Fold this sequence. Notes:
- Belongs to the binding-protein-dependent transport system permease family.
- Its main location: membrane.
- This is ABC transporter permease.
- Residues 26-222 form the ABC transmembrane type-1 domain.
- The chain is mostly helical.
- The protein has a single domain (2-226), classed as MetI-like (MetI-like fold).
- It is built from 10 helices and no strands.
- It is globular, with a radius of gyration of 20 Å.
Amino acid sequence: MNDIVEGLWQAARLVVTLDPGLAEITLRSLQVTVTATVIASAIGLPMGAWIAVNRFRLRRFAIAILNALMGLPPVVVGLIVYVLLSRSGPLGVLGLLFTPTAMIIAQVIIITPIIASISHQAIRELWADYHDLLISLHATRAQRIKTLLWDGRRALMTASLAGFGRAIGEVGAIMIVGGNIDHATRVLTTAIALETGKGDFGLALALGFVLIALAIAVNLALHMLSGTERGSRW
């Protein structure tokens, strides 16, 4: 209990004093996670809509694989990305290992199936309502997908936020590919792991509380900007 109280106190002190180290780590966490979420959403949302709209022979198999990939072990993803980006790997010439870019790549691989699967569920229900209308209007597949993505944008925001929440709390994969290098690749989750290993539980808890507050703040900001549940909308 004392550690929790101390963690809350340290978190408040770090935030109120605008600690430079905390600000740097927090901004890097946001940079990596937001970038990964935007890229994963750009891939996952259309993918989920495409699977919902189209009928093909292996559709059920593709959906099953997509759902299974939601449980990708982060450390395995981190290991695969590490091997690909290492000097002896096929992409080693790019020199991306132990950089924020490598961390973004790992997070994109982890959260894209989550966003695609959730968006597929949302678009499938919307497609059932819009099917007859869009068919009667002779809309092309691309037009159908664009229409469904636009009309389902609030539900799809939930898919992106789910991906963001998964990415902001990721530690295993980004520890492997980022290396937790101070002033370079250290983010809130890896800093928490480091301080816990050092036995500084107060600081680790403080960083944890800041991480939780950051996730809540981003979610609230997006809901306010999108106008979710404004007025009579539920």
